Amino acid sequence: MRLFDKPAHVLHDMLVNKEITAVELLNDVFLRIDEVEDQVKAYLTQTRKTALEQARLVDAKIAKGETIGFLEGIPGAIKDNICTMGVKTTCASKMLEHFVPPYNATVVEKLQTQNPVILGKTNMDEFAMGGSTENSAYFPTHNPWNLDCVPGGSSGGSAAAVAAGTAIWSIGSDTGGSIRQPASFCGIVGIKPTYGRVSRYGLVAFASSLDQIGPLTRDVTDCAHLLNILCGYDAKDSTSINAEVPDFTKSLVKDIKGLKIGLPKEYFVKGMDADVERAIRTAIKKLESLGAEVVEVSMPHTDYAISTYYLLAPAEASSNLARYDGVSYGERVDGIDIVDMMNKTRSAKFGEEVKRRIMIGSYALSAGYYDAYYVKALKVRTLVKQDFDEAFEKVDLIVAPTAPTPAYKIGEMNSDPLKMYLQDICTIPLNLAGLPGISIPCGFTNTKMPVGLQLIGKPLDEATIIRAAYTYEQSNEFHNSIAPLGEDKK
Ligand code: GLN
């Protein structure tokens, strides 16, 4: 029996009931990696030796009759912009090619209390800038549903690994959609919690006022369990919210009777893929038949969200990435003096997209343009947030597509950055407003590519998102569809 294709909660029960051992489970995932990783290319670094030690530890615990936590012995992977002590953390950049963090991110510390089995670090767009994983300085990751397609991004490696069964769960980060969009492209579940819900300590900063860490999983049940582990106040992150974290597994109930769900017409953009629109509209009908009341809401500033984000995120990035100067840490290319050294280092070690954003950001922050661009963008950010505030006076939840298209072909978009930026229309507004949002599978296109449905919640109301997502998920089989990849080898 193969095990890689099962969600964590099923595997956890099998471990507890002694139907399998953690080492057996790990060996099956290793086998899966051997079978398909050369096609998918989700990993930048694999940590097989420590993974095996971790699995043995869990088996010893079980043999002694000790109880185990949800994630104990379940193999998962971590995006390569999250610091792992003693394990390379490159952000898929040449700049951090040899960076080995001397500390763990808070989320890694939290995971570690669970004795999970960490398989390695996953590929991503360089410094999380992008939506296809093609901006990785190392190699692109491929979509397990069609190897010619992108897995989405920037957490493309994390999403592809879960979809391919080369990890049972993974952790990603979302600044403008980087958990939800790859989850949608790869047919899995991904949630961006409320800004401040999960500590950003040890997440390599891209745009600090937007960045948030979250899980990518096979189904909503696993997502709720992972949220329980990851969420919580952290004094080491000054933007961490000191709010009570509910037990999200209590929201795993099939009940959305009377739930008011808003449908923003602005999210059904011109040029939206017809198959995606059909899948989303069918899902909305399903939510209605399950007892929800769907009403139209208006979010008039949605149109401005992309330009706002693509000013604010690069502005913050240009400041955050100033630290890679060849002096403190990261790579260095020697020069004739310090200015020449910094020039050479940053020219050689940053990729095209990162340089583009540093330039846009520096421009927007420069003395003559600060008010015209940066300050104006901050004001529009407030308007985008107000759209949500007003909508949430009338509804409990908002439903929308996660992305206007399914996964596209590798190389199709990356010659046109603007076209790629426009893809983020449905995910970016939540980051600007700091709101939680999940993407769950809701069907397929005619060419069998997955489509994701996005559910957006009020601040700190991940519980309602989980409840609605679970109710919807249990009414269909989409989450049980495994990417066809490697089928012949099973
Ligand atoms: N695609 C968006 C960007 O390129 C979002 C990235 C992210 O969420 N990290 O900035």
Automatic annotation (TrEMBL):
InterPro entries: Amidase, Amidase_CS, Amidase_dom, AS_sf, GatA. The keyword Cell inner membrane does not apply. Its EC number is 6.3.5.7. It is an enzyme of class 6 (ligase). It comes from the Bacteria. One of its GO terms (cellular component) is glutamyl-tRNA(Gln) amidotransferase complex. GO terms for molecular function: ATP binding; glutaminyl-tRNA synthase (glutamine-hydrolyzing) activity; transferase activity. Pfam families: Amidase. The active site is at residues 79, 154, 178. It catalyses: L-glutamyl-tRNA(Gln) + L-glutamine + ATP + H2O = L-glutaminyl-tRNA(Gln) + L-glutamate + ADP + phosphate + H(+). Keywords: ATP-binding, Ligase, Nucleotide-binding, Protein biosynthesis, Transferase. Allows the formation of correctly charged Gln-tRNA(Gln) through the transamidation of misacylated Glu-tRNA(Gln) in organisms which lack glutaminyl-tRNA synthetase. The reaction takes place in the presence of glutamine and ATP through an activated gamma-phospho-Glu-tRNA(Gln). Heterotrimer of A, B and C subunits. HAMAP family: GatA. Belongs to the amidase family. GatA subfamily. This is Glutamyl-tRNA(Gln) amidotransferase subunit A. It comes from Propionispira arboris. The gene is gatA.
